[in-house]
Amino acid sequence: MSLAGPLSGIRIIEVGVMLAGPYATMLLADLGAEVIKVEPPGGEISRQVGDSYFASLNRNKRSICLDLRSGDGQAKLAELVADSHALLVNMKPSAIKKLGLTYDSLRRHNEGIVCVALTGYGLHGGDDPAFDYVIQAATGVAAMTGDPDAPPTLPGYSAADNSTGLTAALGLLAQIVSGRGGQVDVSLRDVMLSQLNYRASAYLNDGVEPRRQPFGAHSYYVPAQLFPTAKGYLALFITHDGFWKSFAGEAGIDGFVTMAERAAARDQVLAAVSAALATDSAANWEARLKPLRIPAAAVRTLPQALAETPEMVVASGDMRLVGSPIKVEGYRPVYRPAPGFEPQPS
């Protein structure tokens, strides 16, 4: 028998749109929290993107349609707040304040409510548009991504939105655990700057500005990047001398024994590694290096990655989705489908 979810008994109200907010609350719902998604008349905008998009961010929730601009909608929201642990909202700061979705506005209904505002630049940071790609451009992520001789680039998924959703969920739970109600403020900009940790530290303390390296090479470790092979690309990540010794023995490379030597002779090391890897396919190199415990993987497509991890694909109603990444011993989520939408009667 599966145990109750670790967040069973926790009720969370979500006033979320598109990705970051709904992703945060879906992760919490997968862990057993009761999530009530408040949707405006006409439904949350991501329903217009498509059924699979909406399902991928809103399973395990139930939905209620409230016009928060009306007195009746505000009264029903107050009833929900009075019996909930937290409210998470991702909207423009001006809209959050106008609709009364802050702790200062809602504490009269429930002194213990945790209110999480997920915005682009902070609850007091203004209403400038803050979509994922805009934030990646504004925080230096795009500038340090891509080939040095090519334009800056962006990853193929919403890194800022997803990262901020995870951070917002952490902040929400931290404040619940504290036993105090209050306001939690999480912004896409601050999250992405935080995730540049060692890059930012190198600049702030040593004046070292990030610069792009071919094939996404790591700034410290050598070799640690993508390499072309006889067929396909291989990600190789040599972080210490033991890994290098094992790899060099398999690849037939002499010298460059220490990390300092490899860093000082980056170009020569990369040339030697590239020549060795060009003699076999990425798949074969992965198979050869795996028994040696060397961090390496052939570049896969998403369909290939999903085919290799069937345990991560779950059924949620009629949809097949990627399941929760959080595994709790004795608990297995039941993946209920994303809620349908029932507009308020006029």
UniProtKB/TrEMBL annotation:
Pfam families: CoA_transf_3. The keyword Transferase applies. The keyword Transferase applies. One of its GO terms (molecular function) is CoA-transferase activity. Keywords: Transferase. InterPro entries: CoA-transferase_III_domain, CoA-Trfase_fam_III, CoA-Trfase_III_dom3_sf, CoA-Trfase_III_dom_1_sf. SUPFAM superfamilies: CoA-transferase family III (CaiB/BaiF) (SSF89796). This is Crotonobetainyl-CoA:carnitine CoA-transferase CaiB-like acyl-CoA transferase. The lineage of its organism: Bacteria, Bacillati, Actinomycetota, Actinomycetes, Mycobacteriales.
